[in-house]
Amino acid sequence: MLKFKGNEYPCCASLTMGIIGGKWKTVILFHLMNNKLRYNEIRKLMPTVTERTLSLQLKSLEKDNLINRTVHTTKPPLKVTYSLTNFGKTLIPIIKSIADWGDFVAEKYGDQLPAKQHN
Questions:
Q1: Which listed residue, 14, 22, 28, 116, has the most CB atoms within 10 A of its CB?
Q2: How far apart are CA 11 and CA 1, in angstroms?
Q3: Distances from the Cα of 53 to the Cαs of 16, 25, 28, 46, in angstroms?
Q4: What is the spatial distance between Cα 32 and Cα 89, in angstroms, rounded to a whole number?
Q5: Is residue 38 helix, strand or coil?
Q6: Most distant pair of Cα atoms in the chain: their distance
Q7: Domains delineated in the chain
């Protein structure tokens, strides 16, 4: 068993998916790979996510120390930016691989499913 932040996982793949799995976390991390972004900028890049879901996913990523939430209060209005932590940056090769695979599937198969292979 592997442990991370009080949770136990049966294998390394389940630990990884437990942290970045789900529909939106990897997408958020993808958009933060090269940029610090404000909440509304992230929202525009992900128009189909609800505000509640985005807010919850950002909080979860922050809790797992994958992203920083920085509040800039030098002058009104309040400005909040999100960026990858050093720990979050360790995911960049994985996120790039996931994105590259998505591009490959879209280009090679488009709307058709690959033929089912029998072993």
A1: 28
A2: 6
A3: 20, 10, 11, 11
A4: 9
A5: strand
A6: 63
A7: 2-98 (1.10.10.10)
Reported confidence tier of residue 119, pLDDT bands at 50, 70, 90: low
Q: Hey, which bits of the chain come out as E strands?
A: 2-4, 7-9, 37-38, 67-72, 79-84
Half-sphere exposure of 14 (CA within 13 A, CB side): 8
Q: What is the mean pLDDT of residues 67-74?
A: 91
Token representation of residue 54: 């985005």
**Region 110-115 average pLDDT:** 73
How many residues would you count in the chain?
A: 119
> Nearest to residue 82, comparing CAs of 110, 107, 61?
61
